[in-house]
């Protein structure tokens, strides 16, 4: 019952907060918000240090330890959720602050964590990228990925396609 409530709210948010889906050349992209699972933090840091992009980070963990600040972002966990399974108000406010100036949201999480999906559904960022999640379409640019994968495989696939992203310019801006 709680899961279906969260899923309904996510779908409702997605209808209200449609992103523009505007594509930029990835090389010209400014600020990015990176979503990931806490266990992948060190790999996420290394990946984006080599990209030379300004990134903000939001990590999630299924453990019951309190969330913690990190350089350029924050972690949150089950303890930061309401009884209904939604992120608490302070987590939502932190997330909205992190996303407000971003061009792209990239979700590197390999599992369907409803609290993360809920936060992503609140975002009005220009382009959302991630793997296809069961139950709803969170992203403008989705990859269909195998059921079992690791961060390395997922990050290589997403970054490969993002680097290929080029603007299609005509008289009017094209969207996807």
Question: Care to give the gist of this entry?
Answer:
By secondary structure, this protein is α/β, with parallel strands linked by helices. The protein has helices spanning 2-16, 41-51, 89-99, 114-122, 151-164, and strands at 31-37, 54-61, 69-70, 73-77, 104-107, 127-131, 141-143.
Q: How far is the first residue's CA from the last residue's CA? A: 34 Å
- SSE order, as H and E? HEHEEEHEHEEH
**Residue share in helix:** 25-40%
- In the predicted model, the low-confidence regions spanning at least 5 consecutive residues are 167-176
Rg measurement, Å: 16 Å
The assigned structural class equals alpha/beta
* Biggest sheet, spatial arrangement of strands: 3-4-2-1-5-6-7
For the residues shown, what is the average pLDDT?
Answer: 81
Helix count equals: 5
Proportion of strand residues:
15-25%
Question: How many strands in all?
Answer: 7
Largest sheet: 7 strands, mixed
Note the overall shape. globular
Explain what this protein looks like in three dimensions.
With 176 residues, this protein is of the alpha/beta class. It contains five helices and seven strands, in the order αβαβββαβαββα. A seven-stranded mixed β-sheet has the order 3-4-2-1-5-6-7, sandwiched between helices. β1, α2 and β2 form a beta-alpha-beta unit. α1 packs parallel to α4. The C terminus is likely disordered.
């Amino acid at each position: 019952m709680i899961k279906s409530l969260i899923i309904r709210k996510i779908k409702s948010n997605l209808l209200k907060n449609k992103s523009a889906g505007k594509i930029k050349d990835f090389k010209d992209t400014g600020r990015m918000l990176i979503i990931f699972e806490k266990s992948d933090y060190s790999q996420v840091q290394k990946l984006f240090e080599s990209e030379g992009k300004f990134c903000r980070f939001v990590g999630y963990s299924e453990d019951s330890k309190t969330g913690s600040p990190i350089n350029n972002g924050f972690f949150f966990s089950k303890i930061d959720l309401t009884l209904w399974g939604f992120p608490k108000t302070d987590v939502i406010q932190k997330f909205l602050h992190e996303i407000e100036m971003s061009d792209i949201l990239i979700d590197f999480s390999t599992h369907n964590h409803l609290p993360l999906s809920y936060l992503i559904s609140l975002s009005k960022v220009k382009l959302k990228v991630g793997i296809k999640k069961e139950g709803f379409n969170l992203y403008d640019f989705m990859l269909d990925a195998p059921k079992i994968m690791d961060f390395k495989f997922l990050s290589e696939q997403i970054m490969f396609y993002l680097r290929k992203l080029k603007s299609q310019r005509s008289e009017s801006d094209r969207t996807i």
